[in-house]
Design a protein that fits this description.
The structure is a homodimer.
Chain A lengths: L2 E6 L7 H16 L3 E6 L5 H12 L5 H8 L1 H16 L4 E3 L7 E3 L8 E4 L2 H8 L3 E5 L2 E3 L5 E3 L4 H12 L4 E6 L20 E3 H9 L7 H10 L3 E5 L15 E4 L1 H18 L12 E5 L2 E10 L4 H11 L7 E5 L5 E9 L3 H10 L1 H4 L3 E5 L2 E7 L9 H11 L6 E5 L2 E7 L3 H11 L6
Parallel strand pairs in A: 1-2, 1-9, 2-6, 3-6, 9-11, 10-12
Antiparallel strand pairs in A: 4-5, 7-8, 11-12, 13-18, 14-16, 14-17, 15-16, 18-20, 19-20
Helix pairs in contact in A: 1-4, 6-8, 7-8, 13-14
Amino acid sequence: MARIVMKFGGTSMAGTERIRRVAAIVKRQQDAGHEVAVVVSAMAGETDRLVNFCREANPLYDPAEYDVVVAAGEQVTSGLLALTLQALGCRARSWLGWQMPLGTDDAHAKARIGALDAPDMLAAMADGEIAVIPGFQGVSEWGRITTLGRGGSDTSAVAVAAAIKADRCDIYTDVDGVYTTDPRIVAKARKLRYVTYEEMLELASVGSKVLQTRSVSLAMKEGVRVQVLSSFIDDDAPPADSLPGTMIVSDEELAQIQSARLQSARLESEGPDMERQLITGIAADKNEAKVILIRVPDRPGAVASIFGPLAEANINVDMIIQNVGRDKGETDVTFTVPAADLPRAQALLESAQATIGFQRLVTDGKVAKISVVGVGMRSHAGVAATMFQALADRQINIQAISTSEIKVSVLIDEDETELAVRVLHTAYELDAI
Amino acid sequence: MARIVMKFGGTSMAGTERIRRVAAIVKRQQDAGHEVAVVVSAMAGETDRLVNFCREANPLYDPAEYDVVVAAGEQVTSGLLALTLQALGCRARSWLGWQMPLGTDDAHAKARIGALDAPDMLAAMADGEIAVIPGFQGVSEWGRITTLGRGGSDTSAVAVAAAIKADRCDIYTDVDGVYTTDPRIVAKARKLRYVTYEEMLELASVGSKVLQTRSVSLAMKEGVRVQVLSSFIDDDAPPADSLPGTMIVSDEELAQIQSARLQSARLESEGPDMERQLITGIAADKNEAKVILIRVPDRPGAVASIFGPLAEANINVDMIIQNVGRDKGETDVTFTVPAADLPRAQALLESAQATIGFQRLVTDGKVAKISVVGVGMRSHAGVAATMFQALADRQINIQAISTSEIKVSVLIDEDETELAVRVLHTAYELDAI
């Protein structure tokens, strides 16, 4: 018997029929003898509806009252799932953020989870009652409703799993796992059985929308085993334990699994594709915009005068290149910012033109960032070289490069996104046979 | 300076624009120097939407989870009104049922209000902050959300007004007061400046939908001065203190007001219409159904065998007549039940036919109950006689009669409802000149 946290997103909770499917999936886990807590999102579209009401009421809204309004969406679905589980003959009850209680700080609308001490809920679970928990919400020490920020239900699920020492946190989504790349771009993309937390972080932050970044960070920090699964499976599917979702694990656990599988591969004559891939996945992100500052004085402090104000304004700068200028003592500086922040960044830089001393500012929103991710590259050289060569072979021009320990990203023309992803998927031998 | 509770219904809260009107009305009270608490309903239609979700999830729903779901509607509007008040420059915050807390018993979906001890809220109000309270919801001693049953927001408002010793509880609705009868039926209906609690109870329970019966009972018990006002007034209207709504007061207060007004009438040469009317209002209710049991054995216990099971099934029986039967030892029994309960009542009675011993059951849903109400009839004979004569003059047949100390009701053919109300409105000299 295990203790399991299951999480269902807004698409899975959108309406009576879908909630009934969710209840059936949950019941299967309980029937298998597990203790179950379920974390739910609001119905798809509901949070947007509530957020819009807040904006209409008061464009400069008080985040404490915003939280009162938007937390209602998950309150509704938690009650409805409890009712639906009861209709299937299960014992179930909802535990709202303030009832468990799930303590947070009082940074309303983007609260951070603090303590979760839920002895009553755990006792009820041990007694065979399914706990249904509205995601995204908590309670401040002042007894006011808080929310964790958009997508916070994944984070709620991981936090609950950590606090109640769950054996596993199953995140049910509208995809059935994490793929080597977006299957809509590359038909030969393959589902990954395992990824590490760090790989998932890189994949999540570069546009693979399976899991919210914060939830992966928290899972890594707390050592929660997270599994990504599809909630759109038919009712006769086997229990989730044997479902081929994607499990997110630590480096160490992955190493153990791999050595065990190599062992079994030898014994059962399995092919060499059991071996660890150098690259785990390829992500594409079109939500970046490029900024070029032309003819910046090449002197100490110049770069600081550019990026200091952007950092203060909470604008994330990602890739930075300093080109050699045409004239001595001058240089061109290129970098990327999230496309949504481009107007603010441009306004900030233009107002600081005299201080920075650049001659001209050029922007380009038609760019895409392509990233190859994999813990394997730690021990292998040549990953970046393979990438540059593969792109060059197809005449795809690289506008900027950034790297981390387990990631290489390049900026290219947005029109070439799909081509680049397919080319790289093949180059790293990720294509399904 | 007074302490005022204001209550706004679902029609007044239906959407951003209407909430803005409500906020303006509330702000006017605060600007006049009053301490203000506002009780709000869910947006019109929202509670029905949530109730339907519960029914779809589980037809035999657990009322505790039903409460979690439906309480979300008022949670949303309380946050939105707080935000809207803030946009007008007021300080405001929402106080949910569990935050005040507003204690109730644990009869979920129809909870009764117990204790309200809200020192923090009162301190905030005294400090100039407007308290926004979601109506209809409370919290049980087990820390679970409860709701008061449909229409419970009026009751919340009165309970809050009683608990915080408010000087007045203003109920804003989509009508501008209590009328002598439905103005859609009788164009010459007149708005009442004052009605007593008991009159209002009779008017509320016989179909005048201005206030929920429970809220009037509670106001009478707690001595809360309730005023019914329209929320659809223009922004330049004078503050509510001087608005011509209807004030609901005790017999004693009414007597004082009347003697004061007669005094002033003499001084200011006002007309005799200042004197107390014999009849305060006329109500019509088409939601009754008539049941006739034909040839019931005329023996001790026969009536108990009919009405015992109905009472156990929580079906309210209103008017009862026992006709003389055609044969000795037998009688016909006629009574009314709410139309919504007719199928259940019929099934119950048919299954008990052998026990009761009646020969045949006849039902009629096409009936209406017409009631004349007024505390004046306590001291005046002839009220019923006037009613019967007026109806007889127009050939309107009376099928059943029931009376209380301040009410006479008759059952007539539903088609004659409007005619009967008009005839009686004239007969009791209620028509506006």
